[in-house]
Each structure stands twice: as C-alpha cells, then as structure tokens.
Design goal:
Blueprint: H1 3-6, H2 11-14, H3 19-24, E1 26-33, E2 38-41, E3 46-51, H4 53-58, E4 70-75, E5 80-86, E6 92-96, E7 105-110, E8 114-120, H5 127-140, E9 143-149, H6 157-167, E10 173-175, E11 196-200, H7 207-215, E12 223-225, E13 234-236, E14 239-242, E15 248-251, H8 264-270, H9 272-279, H10 295-301, H11 307-354
Parallel strand pairs: 3-5, 8-9, 8-11, 9-10, 11-15
Antiparallel strand pairs: 1-2, 1-4, 2-3, 4-5, 6-7, 12-13, 14-15
The structure holds guanosine-5'-diphosphate (GDP) and zinc ion.
C-alpha cells in the first residue's frame, strides 16, 4: 500500500483525474477545514490550501471541500497550495446545517468508509434517535456501525442489544466503555490503513473520550484563535486523525443533534423491515389503517412490529420528503441565479463589443 492509499486513495478517485490534470495537479486529502483555508495531505507532505478566486466564483458553497474530501491541488511553494477541484465523493454524511440563515445541507464527513453512530447506554438511550442516525448513515453510502458507549453504566446489555438489533438493519453493533477500556479492540478492524471512520452522535455520549482512547497521543484538539478582536475566541474543527492502528478517524467535535437532510433513501433502507411488510399488503395503496389483508396491521397485532417503530418510520419519511422538496426548490433557484448572471455577463459583453 503506498502513502496515498493509506490515506484512503483508490481507483474510484484515480479514475476521475485526467491526463492533462496529472501534469500540473496533485491529489490531496482534506484533513481539516478552517474558516479560510484547509489543511490537506498529499503523498509527500501536509499543505495549507486555499480556494482560488475562480473556484469560489464557479463552485456553489455547498460543494466546497469538506473534511475527508479528495481534492486536486496546485502546490505553491512554502507548504501552500491552491485547490483546483473537489473529486466526486464516494460517500458523504450530510446533515441540515445548524444555525441561523437559510436551511442548507452541510457535509459533515466526506469519503468515510464507516460511520460510528455513538449512543450512550444511560438514561438518555433512545432507539428513535438511533433510527434517525441510521437513516442518515445509510443515505451517506458509508457503512453504519452502531457503537453503544458507556457500557459500564448498563445493567441489561443483552436486552438493549437485542432491541438495537431489531432496528439496525444488519449494521454491526458494538458495546464499549471508553472509561474502562472495554470493547475497544472490537473497533480496530474498522480502523486499518486506508480506511476512514467518522464518529457521530449527540453531545455527551462520550465521543471525545472514545476518540482519545482510540487515538492515544495522536489526538490534539486543533484550536485556532479567532482573528476578530472580540476576545480570544477558540473553535475546534472537524479533522482527520491518524490512529496508531493505521486508519483515519474523522473527529467531529461540537456536533449537536443531527437533523435529517434529504435522506429518503436512507429512511427506506433503515426501515426495510417496515417497507417489506408494506409490500405484502393486499392493496398496493394500503394506508395501513383498516384495510383487509394489511400486513402492517397484522404485524402490529402479533407483535413482530413495534407501534413506536412504525410511528418513527412515518415521521422520518415525512421529514425526509419535506427536506427533499426544499432541496429541489433550492437547486432550482440556484440554477436560476446562475442563468441570470450568465445573461448579465452576455449583455455586458455585447455592450463592450458594440459600444
Ligand atoms: P462527547 O460530547 O460525545 O464528546 O462526550 P464526552 O467524551 O465529552 O463525555 C461526556 C461525559 O461522559 C464525560 O463526563 C465523560 O467522562 C463521560 N464518559 C465518557 N465515556 C464514558 C464511559 O465509557 N463510561 C462512563 N461511565 N462515562 C463516560
Ligand atoms: Zn397495509
């Protein structure tokens, strides 16, 4: 395995680079995103990369590089580089961007192989939240791995694990205690050279503690001092961390609740037990209310389907559909804005030509 491959490079990305590009550009992985620049890793070194003016102009912000992305850069001396292009993502974990302003999707983790969905085995434990995270994970095209944290606090692990298995759709499930060091070895197979895992979950579930355990000395919170004079504002950033086991961990500090974004397929995949049942209903347009031959109602009656899971399915499905409609609308207005600016440009050119 060469250096690029240990960083996650594969034929999928190599195939996207033209002969022409190979002459002047170098592939690099985005290891951290800061406000105005990126830290990227090439086969040889770590560089600080910036977007060119042309890139900023031509590429909509929601497809700017994110942590984990593969980009083509042009080295520019003194450990610096310009980002020329973002390569197509093999996977992308998206969420609805938090904060004020128009709703937009945000890529939280690009090109990860596994998403560790961390849920704490304490009083906050919530299957419904896990269903939401699973839908997002399936949508991302990365493989979800359920990580039940704080196992030391759980007195009925077998029971909880069985409940999780029922909703996990075949995703592997591991119980760990970062505090005691229990179960950590079970995660090592996912953390081998060339592999990238992202650790996601609500705050307080023990992500940092687990990341520190897995990374040992490797993890140092990247802190930058804000350049405003309103005080010493420190922020932590999403970043890739190289683990002693050889794999990469995408650390996502400070992530709060995850909101669905356009995850209709993820919801379908996450609830394929319910979807399979629905396909067995006698009527194809069955609303699962009182129709004869309804497989869903039958499963509810005989206890193979949980009422709360069905409700959760309906809720996430509606939410995902709503976001998808919004997303389409937004893409449409972006297209319109682009067209307008092209027209304006043309008019300006015409004026130049004809005086
Ligand atoms: P994060 O917000 O997800 O990064 O969570 P932290 O790693 O900051 O942990 C939140 C709290 O849970 C801290 O007080 C940790 O000490 C505690 N914690 C983390 N892992 C474990 C564990 O395995 N067992 C127990 N009992 N507590 C833990
Ligand atoms: Zn039905």
């Amino acid at each position: 395995m060469n250096e690029l491959q240990t960083l996650g490079w594969s034929e999928f990305f190599a195939a996207q680079v033209s002969e022409e590009e190979k002459k002047s550009a170098v592939p690099a992985r985005v290891s951290a995103e800061h406000r105005t620049e990126y830290v990227v890793w090439t086969a040889e070194s770590e560089l600080r990369a910036e977007l060119t003016g042309r890139f900023r102009h031509a590429v909509p912000q929601d497809v700017w590089p994110a942590a984990g992305d593969w980009v083509l850069v042009q080295p520019r001396g003194e450990a610096k580089a310009a980002v020329l292009r973002v390569l197509e993502r093999r996977s992308a974990f998206m969420r609805k961007a938090a904060g004020p302003g128009l709703p937009a999707e945000q890529v939280v983790a690009a090109n990860v192989d596994y998403v560790f969905l961390a849920c704490a085995l304490n009083r906050d434990f919530n299957l419904r939240r896990l269903e939401r995270y699973l839908a997002l994970a399936w949508e991302s095209r990365a493989e979800p791995v359920v990580v039940l944290t704080k196992a030391d606090l759980c007195g009925n692990l077998a029971e909880v694990r069985a409940a999780v298995e029922n909703i996990a759709g075949g995703a592997p499930i591991h119980a760990v205690s970062a505090l005691r060091g229990d179960g950590l070895d079970d995660l090592l197979p996912y953390l081998q050279p060339g592999r990238t895992a992202a650790l996601l979950g609500s705050s307080g579930v023990g992500k940092s503690t687990l990341a520190n355990r897995l990374a040992g000395q490797a993890l140092l919170a990247v802190k930058t001092i804000g350049d405003d004079d309103t005080g010493r504002h420190t922020t932590t950033h999403r970043q890739l961390v190289r683990l002693p086991s050889g794999g990469l961990l995408l650390d996502t500090p400070g992530m709060r609740e995850l909101q669905l974004w356009d995850a209709e397929q993820g919801v379908e995949r996450g609830f394929d037990d319910v979807e399979t049942l629905a396909r067995q209903c006698r009527f194809t347009d069955c609303r699962h209310k009182a129709e004869p031959g309804c497989a869903i109602l039958e499963a509810l009656a005989n206890g193979t389907l949980d009422e709360s899971r069905l409700r959760s399915y309906g809720k996430l499905q509606r939410e995902a559909a709503f976001q998808a409609r919004r997303n389409n609308h937004r893409l449409a207005s972006r297209e319109k804005a682009r067209w307008k600016s092209i027209q304006k440009n043309n008019q300006a050119n015409e004026r130049l030509k004809w005086g």
